[in-house]
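job 3f2a | input accepted
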Amino acid sequence: MEGALRLVPGVVATGMFLVGVGSAASAPRALGQPATALTVVCAAALVLIALVGGRSAGSDRSRWGRRTWERLALLAAATVLVCTVVTVSTSYRYGWDPVTVQQVAEGTREPNSAIRYFSVYPNILPMLMIGKLAVWLERAIGLDYAAFFAVVAVASLAVTLAAGLVWLARRGARPVQAAGFVVLTGLIVGISPWMGVPYTDLVALPIPLLVVALLSFLPGLQSPRWMLLVAGLAVLVGIGWAVKTTPIVLLAAVVVGVLLAPGDRPQWQRWSAGGAVVALAWLTSAGLIAAAKPVSDLPLREGVEVDTSLYVAAGMRTQIYADGRRCYGCFDRRLTRPTYGKDTAAQRAVALPAIRASLHDRTILGHGVFYAHKTHHTWGDGMFFAWGEGLDMEEPLQYRLSPDSFLRSVGTADGHLLGVRTAVVGGLWAGVLILAAVRLWQGRREWDLVAISAAVAGLFAFTTLFQGRGRYILVMAPVLIALACAPAARRSAPRG
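job 3f2a | predicted structure (496 res):
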């Protein structure tokens, strides 16, 4: 079993490398912006700087001292500040699920509509609880809904950067590599339009990298600290799972980490702990959702929750927008409209024929081409499907900035420099995927990289099998950026 697990990094690295190269050469047409020479230049420059710089300083084993930590903390604080200014300045009036959650939390949504929505999507109830907290604070101290989630964005990004620095330090990264992680995370994630949307991505953002960082403390711990850390990781994954579905893939990282982490624990104890992780994570997630139901004050209907078969069916279909752009495996209104609020049997009566039709209408080669396109569009979009949900892409968005603002020109969907931004960010993201693939291949025998690759493999499988788009990758992006900035081989951990 252990030998099979250690094959995972090589497979994942190969997939990420191909997506990275493909995205640099032919980026997904996010927002109608095709790849340019600038995309290739940015990707190539990042890879060249990282690989050549890492080789030239490969023998540097200097430890991080107090001044190094202070400088990195200052850089992280400055990055958070700049990203917050950009996010607040370029925030827009969104639609779809976030506005539904906000309206229900504020009590402005028509009651029957609210009941129907959360009966269909009870997994979003924990997000509603956070929205209700925001409304309560607004009434108690005057902190409005947008300001509350601006604070959440600051906290999420700050914790993400802190967790990444801790993990890089424990892997013996050089300070310049850690600084690169901070800057790249700011450019790719910190100023993403999604940071201004009060939804599950924002809340769940720090959890994957927190799990990875905490997992690195497993070796050397003795009971009961080892058991407490394992239990804490399971609870953390369960919280992420309750807020957003995709963090479920972190279960793979924790279980593999428990199985492979250095130590003298017997195999039966490791397997038992792995099973306990799955059970505790599920109990945490299910418990949070169950606890949110009575707090929501909504008389939810039973038996109309969206069925998994609909997500599978949508994940096999192609959406074509009015301007000719294609989205592979995205949200499908043609499946949702006739099944919304219906029981499981009615949903499957629509979903299963759609699945059979997709299987029948394509040859084996056609399926390969479809899923290649889907992976390319889901994983290769450095903007993570920004402004693409609901009707946001089809309706004029309202911003706080004046039309002549520089931030407006590069940071909004109708900015005249949007093409430059998507080319630069897309190139950097392609470079990150290539570098992360290289690091995984170089460290494919190291237990923690095997654990990370198991989570990434899970996310690959999730986005391939089910409905998905680039936004689903956002919460794992900091993990891949940290991996791209990690040293080629583990060094002795620095001491602060």
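job 3f2a | The first strand starts at residue 318 and ends at 320.
job 3f2a | closed
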